[in-house]
Amino acid sequence: MTFAFGGAGVFKVKTKKVPTLAAQVQAFKRLVNDGVISTHQLHHSVALIAISGNDYMSDSDFETGFYTSFDDLDTYIGNVATEILDNVAQLQMLGVRKVLVNNLHPIGCTPLHTSSNNYTTCDLLGNYGASVHNKYLKQMLDERDNVHILDLYTAFTDIVNHAPGGGSDQSKDFKGKLSPCCESTDEGGFCGERSHSGKRLYDLCENPDKTFYWDQTHPTHAGWEAVMMALQQPLMEFLDEDYIA
């Protein structure tokens, strides 16, 4: 079952009427309390908390708040991680035996951030923010049993932003690593947009299977397949055969 909403974050995103992470967990809790989800089902279930950075995007508290120092930013990021931890604890108290939490991918490598330099290099500040988030997340979740962090940051970096001569085997499969396959032809537009007359206002790459990012923020299907190849082995070790049988 999914309780996720596109565009949601740990905290409220002002321009999007979507429930926060806590509200999504409460929706799950109501089904458990009402008996729709049984104790037996809980004991053989895996929960995934997928927070992908909306708390750090435009219209979030991070973007609209007034911060006077790096300490203020550090505190905000710590609050995001703490809220994730609290919701992991809620799920475990309800009886979910194993919980997955993804860390943040290198946000500075998304086309949204690389477009300013013609898709040639990643934005260091964006990646730094993701690293701070991931540091807090690891410190907090390492103290809990039966929680596994899906390391998106390393999986993405090994494909799109590795050192010369390094990277994963899958990295060689992609020609376009920092540029999108689908790009708006109108400044301020978006992938898939059309004019009132139906004219397409975006360009598509010739081979999406060789491009890592689909649009300004999301990987292509091929991109996600490559990421999952990196995540699969540690994930299966966490979800041992006796558990998933």
UniProtKB/TrEMBL annotation:
Q: What UniProt keywords are attached to this protein's entry?
A: Hydrolase, Lipid metabolism
Q: Which InterPro entries match?
A: GDSL (IPR001087), SGNH_hydro_sf (IPR036514)
Q: Name one GO molecular function term.
A: hydrolase activity, acting on ester bonds
Q: Which Gene3D superfamilies match?
A: SGNH hydrolase
Q: Identify the stretch annotated as signal peptide in this record.
A: none
Gene Ontology terms: biological process: lipid metabolic process
As for family, the record states: Belongs to the 'GDSL' lipolytic enzyme family.
* Name under which the protein is recorded: GDSL esterase/lipase
- Organism of this sequence: Aegilops tauschii subsp. strangulata
Q: What is the lineage of its organism?
A: Eukaryota, Viridiplantae, Streptophyta, Embryophyta, Tracheophyta
